[in-house]
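Page 42, continued from yesterday. The earlier attempt failed because a stray header line got pasted into the input along with the sequence. Redoing it now with the clean sequence only.
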Amino acid sequence: MSHFPVSSSTLSATTLRKFVIEKYNLSPNVTCQLFRTGINHTYFITDKQLKYVLRVYCYNWRTKKEIEAEIDLLLLLKHNGNSISYPIVDRNNQYIHEINAPEGLRYAVLFSFAEGGKMRFMDEATCFKIGVLMAQIHQTTVDKSCNRITYNSESLLKKPYEQALQHFPAENPEMQYLKAVSTKIAATFGSIDYSKVSTGIVHLDIWYDNMSITEDNQITLFDFDFCGNGPLILDVAYFCKQLFHIENDKNEYEIKKAAFLKGYQHVRELTSKEIGLIPEAAAAVWIFYLGVQSQRFDWSNVFLTENYLKLMYVTRLKSWMEYHNLQE
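This time it went through. Structure tokens are written below.
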């Protein structure tokens, strides 16, 4: 056997540099640097003042049709003036490139660079602007659909629980708690009156790590890898839950959450039914991401342990549920 098979590889930044120079007619002065490995691999492409982001999708993570749907969404959002990182077309008018990696076929897409930095602790004004941006995006995606996953009780709750069972026994107290919470939320989702709850295309991962903010508070949203179809309140709820865990002072949390919701409703109204769904919708997305971590154990194995499940994941879920008086 000349080459031992692999399940995951990290592609050479040196070779990817040559690749993007050729495909995009970039300057020979371009540099390529690995930024992050994770669910997908991210490289920074730099040529003096010009910056791009090259995403290399991991093997068997997204189909080409799913990536095409993500690109179509981003082009729609860009066309409608939304502040997002968007795909860059190559010299042959193509967005997606195929790479024959050691483990098999992988895809690569070049994106615009989101100027600014990460802001974990946001002030009221920033929370307001995030709400405005999210609502503007939802104004574009409401009542639309894409060729991606539909987020419902099956995909948000049932499948993630089953995926977590690959790593944790059903008798585990935390797994029993997750099952009970999932059953409760599924019942709520089953009774939703969709005449009072807007649906469309959602991002599903809007939090501080997926946006860049400049010194003058200009916000650019990126990483639509989990975009799909579902109630728009899922995005609103998940941001609220992330803000909840960031702000230890819950008075500060309430102030900033109110600013965020005010910004959102400055653009589009939320019904009382949608606002009432925020606690359980957020918990559903939280459980979904445990499923992602379980599914992608090649990436998450450094932290996906019983201690992590108990002390970080379920403890945080319990604190959220108890805060909103949603007992098991």
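Notes: The mean pLDDT is 96.
Reminder to self: strip header lines before submitting.
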